[in-house]
Design goal:
Length: about 300
């Protein structure tokens, strides 16, 4: 049950339930297995006694329990891993852009919610940081389902006080609160020319995964003649000549920005995962991405 559901709108409560059901089905499916090891050793804790299965290590058979129940039973252990996962989400005004059915913010919120639910499923702690050019909201790490519902509520109801983007402000804040080993999912469109200020320090103290969300028209703008554009973060209007000659120049500028970011991520050994509002298959790719990193 979702706590404080009476003060939330029916749409928000429904969305939380839908995301939870979807994620649970995904985790119970064949794509995902529990990353907790079922062996005993340093850093492992007792989990349960269960029926012996062919291939189990006979060293862990509980002979006393087996004699009492007249069948082979085995002690199962799980690896103790108190991992902390931070989900840092860009909620600046540029995130509301979308040229199709969905905008970037809707996809980012969906992905961040699934990340929180998957972390809770793995018994890990998850914290949330919402940022624009300032810290909009910070939720310290927790591991209960109620805590994750609270995170999802924040994601689904956020109303940023500021419009512009400053990723460095978010990274600086994370450096001040981070304790122990932690994984950081940094989710943004990365339309910010100075986000690399603290990137080197953060990449040394966190296991960083950058999640870049760009609309298709932020990569390649169609040749449509003269158009008036508005900067969502500053409100400034500008007239742009998008005839074929200028279109190629702008396409080159956009491509160079992405390539510069890619090289920066590679330099600091930061993995990059890309999503787009016009794609619906990204969650399957997300799970495969997790499997490659042996996370979930």
């Amino acid at each position: 049950m979702i706590e404080n559901s009476k003060r939330l709108s029916p749409d928000v409560v429904l969305k939380i339930k839908q995301l939870e059901i979807f994620t649970r089905r995904l985790l119970n499916g064949a794509l995902v297995g529990d990353s907790r090891s079922a062996i005993k050793g340093t850093g492992f804790e007792f989990d349960q006694i269960r029926d012996y299965n062919c291939g189990d290590d006979i060293r862990f058979i509980d002979w006393k329990a087996s004699a009492r129940n007249n069948k082979l039973l085995i002690k199962q252990y799980r690896e103790e891993r108190n991992r902390t996962i931070y989900v840092a989400v860009d909620v600046s005004q540029s995130s509301i852009f979308g040229s199709g059915v969905f905008n970037k913010q809707e996809k980012i919120v969906e992905l961040a919610s699934v990340l929180a639910l998957v972390a809770q499923h793995g018994k890990d702690h998850v914290g949330l940081l919402l940022f624009s050019d300032n810290i909009e909201e910070y939720v310290p790490p927790g591991s209960s389902l109620q805590h994750v519902h609270f995170i999802m509520e924040k994601l689904l109801t956020v109303q940023p006080k500021r419009a512009q983007t400053d990723i460095s402000a978010a990274l600086k804040h994370l450096l001040s609160v981070k304790k122990g080993d932690a994984i950081l999912f940094l989710i943004s469109d990365f339309i910010d020319n100075t986000f690399d200020t603290y990137l080197a320090q953060v990449s040394k103290r966190f296991d960083v995964i950058a999640v870049r969300c760009l609309d298709v028209n932020e990569k390649v703008i169609p040749a449509v003649g003269f158009i008036t554009m508005q900067d969502l973060e500053t409100g400034d209007l500008i007239e742009v000549d998008m005839r074929h000659k200028n279109k190629n120049y702008i396409k080159q500028v956009l491509a160079e920005r992405i390539e510069k970011q890619n090289k920066l991520f590679q330099k600091h050994r930061i993995d990059l995962f890309e999503i787009s509002p016009d794609r619906t298959d990204y969650l399957g790719k997300l799970i495969r991405f997790f499997r490659q990193r042996m996370m979930y």
